[in-house]
Amino acid sequence: MKINYISHSSFMIEFDKLCMLFDYAEGVLPDIPDQKELIVFASHKHSDHYSQKIFQIKEFHSATSYVLSYDIGMLLSNDVLNVLPDKEYTTVAGGELLKIKTLKSTDCGVAYLIDYCGKVIYHSGDLHMWVWDGAPEFQNREMENAYLKEISKLSKCNIDVAFAVLDGRQEDDYFRGMKALLENCRIKNVFPMHMWGDYSVVGKFKKEYGDKFSADIKDVAFEGQEWEIL
């Protein structure tokens, strides 16, 4: 499968007969082959993860459908699957079975765990350990506990590709969410995201913690970057 980094927390995965687009809000869309179906996932309503522009895609790529978190609004359409947290959904896409599990975000909306064509994909949305220097200790502790509870639901999975938050705005606490995810989950390839253009945090994290984990931490560094994952 081919993976394209679009912007911020948005990526597109291309399979033989299906493309998946995650949390598109801005940036240049890669080419979507006419013969392939497209599913657009939106994890929540925040403007850096969701834009109504996604519905314009159907104007030039008719084989497009949508999976939207409940907080975006319940859209009644045959092309839209509205999802709730802690649920499982099954559909057919590109002629293959597609299984979707949702987790409850520690901020807004859901995270996605997707099983398709023998590959397991995780997109965290804003499910992350949002602890901040200067925040009340009890608040940070509650956040940590809530995050660990949610990602424990992934502990028995073998995840091929994970898109997960690495946000330098958290300063000295920037590493906590990513480190906890890699400590508690089996992940082959992890793509840092939600970096607000500060890609230096990838190198910083890999220097400090990269050798502690077996996951291949990808050097996400510019929009339009591509990878081939076997």
Overall helicity = 10-25%
Number of strands: 14
Molecular shape? globular
What's the tally of helices? 4
Helix and strand pattern: EEEEHEEEEEEHEHEHEE
Name its key features.
4 helices, alpha/beta, 17% helix, 7-stranded mixed beta sheet, 14 strands, single chain, 230 residues, globular
Task: Tell me about this structure.
β9 (110-116) and β10 form a beta hairpin. The strands form two sheets. The chain has a seven-stranded mixed beta sheet with strand order 6-5-4-3-2-1-14, with no helix packed on it. It is α/β, with parallel strands linked by helices and 230 residues long. The chain starts with a strand and ends with a strand. 17% of the residues lie in helices and 35% in strands. The protein contains four helices and 14 strands.
Give the topology:
Layout: E1 2-7, E2 10-14, E3 18-22, E4 37-42, H1 57-60, E5 64-69, E6 80-83, E7 88-93, E8 96-104, E9 110-116, E10 119-123, H2 137-151, E11 158-165, H3 176-184, E12 186-193, H4 200-209, E13 216-217, E14 226-228
Parallel strand pairs: 3-4, 4-5, 5-6, 10-11, 11-12, 12-13
Antiparallel strand pairs: 1-2, 1-14, 2-3, 7-8, 8-9, 9-10
Care to give the gist of this entry?
With 230 residues, the chain is α/β, with parallel strands linked by helices.
